[in-house]
Write a structure and sequence with these properties.
The protein has about 350 residues and is of the alpha+beta class. The protein is built from five helices and 20 strands. It is globular. It starts with a strand and ends in a 9-residue tail after the last helix.
Length: about 350
């Protein structure tokens, strides 16, 4: 077993991480931090995505201070120019016919991809699967993005909090928790490699349902919650309103910046708002309030580490998802260290 998972654990380099939203990347270079490193992102005029470490190999100047000239990136310090593959093709100080150093090229992550409006990178060869959200490709769903947040936190503890079902009546008493039953119904967790899914049904107070105010449906209704997790920090909750109809999908994507800071991306996919932008804004505002309740607690943790030793804490049957989170992350750490069976991530 491992002692615990901190934001900058070296094992996290062998996994996919959200770096930024796709819409944040333009033809103007911009830097984003991940796992203690800065990456420069930009697009070619054709929209092709480029991601490199945010430093010129010459004097380590931030390339995010440079600018794009068509398909190439020019450093703002000495004007070195790099092509789409990160190879230096011009050093102004040497003149047009110079032989350029073979080492004059940019470093980048092992893998880059885009999915459901997010840019993902894997600093080293990823052992974890590329995260996806099925609802993002369904035209029946309307998307809304919460503002990007940065907070003092441990990414593993934030993931634990998202998957935790027993805290609703207490942490979220001012939003949705007041109508939540305190007892968590029995449920099962289905694991597949470095991912799992878990679902259960329960009754809740559906204050968002217009049918309640109209007297069509009672306040107390049924819903099905399906959690989907992909290591290390990609989380999804699909809430199906069994009485009122419709589905609310919450995406929660965590980016460890340094050992004390996490960037939080969250998006909603709804198929029950009738395309109303006003109702989506209300849904986003509500979700912002929910996240604030969580962060108010999570940012105060003295130890910013997720325990991975299952015996270090007390667990109950209500904690199946969060126990599985610890097992998967422990397996990832052990696999990177070379002490886990090769099949653990398949």
């Amino acid at each position: 077993m491992t002692d615990g998972l901190r934001n900058l654990d070296p094992a996290l380099r062998s996994a996919w991480h959200p770096l930024c939203r796709s819409g944040e990347v333009t033809t103007t270079p911009r830097a984003f931090a991940l796992l203690g490193e800065r990456y420069v992102t930009f697009r070619s005029p054709d929209g092709d995505l480029r991601v490199f470490r945010d430093r010129c190999p010459h004097r380590f100047a931030p390339l995010s201070l440079g600018h794009c000239e068509g398909d190439v990136l020019r450093c703002s310090y000495h004007g070195w120019v790099f092509d789409a593959d990160g190879v230096c093709i011009e050093i102004p100080a040497l003149g047009p016919d110079a032989t350029l150093p073979s080492r004059a090229k940019l470093d980048g992550p092992s893998a880059v991809a885009e999915s459901h409006g997010m840019v993902f990178v894997a600093p080293e060869t990823p052992l974890t699967p590329m995260p996806t959200i099925a609802s993002a490709d369904d035209p029946a769903f309307q998307r809304g993005d919460l503002p990007v947040l940065e907070t003092r936190a441990n990414a593993g503890l934030l993931a634990d909090n998202f998957l935790d079902m027993a805290h609703f009546p207490f942490v979220h008493a001012a939003t949705f928790g007041a109508g939540e039953a305190r007892e968590v119904p029995n449920y099962t967790v289905a694991r597949e490699g470095y991912a799992f899914a878990a679902a259960y049904e329960h009754e809740f107070a559906n204050r968002e349902d217009p049918g309640v105010a109209e007297g069509i449906r009672p306040l107390l209704q049924r819903r099905r919650l399906t959690y989907r997790y992909t290591a290390p920090f990609h989380l999804e909750l699909a809430i199906e309103f069994l009485d009122a109809g419709g589905t609310n999908v919450i995406g929660f994507f965590l980016t460890p910046i340094d050992d004390e800071t996490v960037r939080v991306y969250s998006s909603l996919w709804r198929d029950d708002l009738g395309g109303s932008e006003e109702r989506m804004r209300d849904a986003i505002d509500f979700e912002i309030a929910v996240v604030a309740e969580d962060l108010r607690l999570q940012s105060r943790f003295a130890e910013l580490v997720l325990p991975l030793d299952i015996t270090a804490e007390i667990h109950t049957r209500a904690d199946k998802t969060t126990v599985e989170l610890r097992r998967i992350l422990s397996d990832l750490v052990q696999a990177v260290r070379g002490s886990a069976p090769a099949s653990s991530g398949n």
